[in-house]
Amino acid sequence: MACRNVVGFGSSAGDGGPCGSRAPSRDVASAGRLLERLRAAALEAVAPTRCAGCERPGELICADCLHALALIDPRRSCLGCGAPFGDLVCTECASGLAGGGDESDAAPPRPFAFERCLATATFEEPLPRIVRAYKDAGERRLAPLFAEMLADTVEHAERVAPARYGGLASAADVLVFVPATAAAYRRRGFDHMEAIARPLADMAGLELADALAKRGRTDQRLLGRAGRQAGARGSFDVVRSVRGLRVVLVDDVMTTGSTLDAAARSLLHAGAARVDALVLARVWG
Fold first, then answer.
1. Is 142 left (phi over 0), alpha (psi -120 to 50) or beta?
2. CATH number of the domain at 72-282, out of 1.20.81, 3.80.10, 3.40.50, 2.40.50?
3. 6/65 Cα distance (integer angstroms)
């Protein structure tokens, strides 16, 4: 299940190691794996796995839906906002200042506090259905798949467009996720971005920093551009030290950029050396 000729999007994330200094005995570990397989088999019998994009049985994201994703070419995208066609002039950036130029050009002026933005795909079907299945329908098994998509996106961008996206993850110190509001956490029962960021940090070889706390109760999806921008201002507290660190800030969907901008400003105000943004989907057009 590969969407680019690099790391496949559909393989499972690896299991984490034990939290303590003593590993469980082989028998206990084997019994735990057996119980997990039995639970999974029972759940599959009751509620068979279906594609989150088209409901085809068998896989969480089928090959057809993966191939249908509108992937963004990092050689042509806007460095400032992640839009798919901003390498010369980006019409999506509110200030009209972002744009990458060709790879020999100097970095353009930035419309946001983060240095660069990299997005996996534009937010068009089947991706919106897949994201809704994760966030609103509670299909948590999608988290490691989203993490792999993001890890693949970074690896691909650093390889094919090193003058534009080089070092975005490979030269970073920590990965920070945009957290859910308390209201969203209570509604969903989990922080959707933390669940993605944890396996992503392992894949990218970065420390995960749970550094941001989000104020407010409003669902940003219900707001227009002006409402998003007003609601995002001053909406984040930095709750652990990021002083001197190069940060990759990750979120699922970027619409106006106001949430990521507010989060990046808070991190920079707290002493972060730089912030780059990484998102799964870019609303565009």
1. alpha
2. 3.40.50
3. 18
Q: How far apart are CA 91 and CA 224, in angstroms?
A: 18
Question: Distance between CA 208 and CA 257 in Å, rounded?
Answer: 22
Q: Which of residues 181 and 39 earns the better pLDDT score?
A: 181
How far is it, in rounded angstroms, from Cα 259 to Cα 235?
8
Residue type for position 15: D
Q: How many CB atoms lie within 10 A of CB 219?
A: 12
Q: What is the residue whose two structure tokens read 């989203």? A: 146
Query: Per residue, what are the HEC states of 12-34?
Result: CCCCCCCCCCCCCCHHHHHHHHH
What is the residue type of 160? V
The structure tokens listed for 194 are: 């933390």
| pLDDT tens digits, 157-192 | 999 999 999 999 999 999 999 999 999 999 999 999
Is the pLDDT reported for residue 223 higher than 80? Answer: no
Strands 174-177 and 117-122: unpaired
Quote the distance between the C-alpha of residue 107 and its chain's center: 24
What are the boundaries of each domain within the chain? 72-282
Predicted model pTM: 0.78
Q: What is the pLDDT of residues 131-162, one digit of tens each?
A: 999 999 999 999 999 999 999 999 999 999 99
